[in-house]
Amino acid sequence: MGFVKEFKEFAVKGSVMDLAVGVIIGGAFGKIIDSAVKDLIMPLISAVIGSVDFSNLYVVLKGTVAANLPLEEARKVPEAVVFAYGNFISVGINFLLLAMAVFLLVKGINSLKRKEEAAPAVPVAPTPGEALLTEIRDLLKNK
């Protein structure tokens, strides 16, 4: 089988297309969660803590850095070692929210699948031809 033909068969398989759709939807979903974290949750958390921007939270491990210096400026100070943890907190909260949203989505889908499986199948009424064949069968049995 030629390389091009084999690649074409691979690329148009249903699972590959499902994966592509999932990646696209996942990217859009990630942006929604990122916006929820940055625009809704972080302002609430920073109101309690007192810092508006988590990305500038850091601790100086070595050297001297002026107080209230932005992170990028603190990194430029010679001989200063900066432990920047603020962005990690933001990304961690973002991940937890995304994981919770995906969990709730999967849980909802599983619940719907269980309801479908539990629903009894509706008996289909026999067609007139099937009813006639059943009558003939029963008559032949009784002979």
Explained architecture:
By secondary structure, the protein is mainly α. It has a single domain (3-52, 85-138), classed as Non-ribosomal Peptide Synthetase Peptidyl Carrier Protein, Chain A (Orthogonal Bundle). It has five helices and two strands, in the order ααβαβαα. It has helices at 3-11, 14-49, 71-76, 86-118, 128-142, and strands at residues 58-62, 81-84. Strands 1-2 form a two-stranded antiparallel ribbon. α2 (14-49) packs across α4. The radius of gyration is 31 Å and the shape is elongated. The N and C termini lie far apart (62 Å).
Instruction: Note the beta-strand portion.
Output: 5-15%
- The top-level CATH class is Mainly Alpha
The H/E string reads HHEHEHH
Largest beta-sheet characterization: 2 strands, antiparallel
- How many structural domains does the protein architecture include? 1
Give the uncertain stretches in residue-range form.
Answer: none
Placed side by side, the strands forming the largest sheet appear as 1-2
Mean of residue pLDDT values: 82
Helix content range of the residues, please? 55-70%
Q: Please state the overall shape, judged from the principal axes of the Cα atoms.
A: elongated
* Alpha carbon gap, first and last residue: 62 Å
Overall SS class: mainly alpha
| Gyration radius from CA atoms, angstroms | 31 Å
GO molecular function: mechanosensitive monoatomic ion channel activity
Membrane topology: Multi-pass membrane protein
Function: Channel that opens in response to stretch forces in the membrane lipid bilayer. May participate in the regulation of osmotic pressure changes within the cell.
Organism: Pedobacter hiemivivus
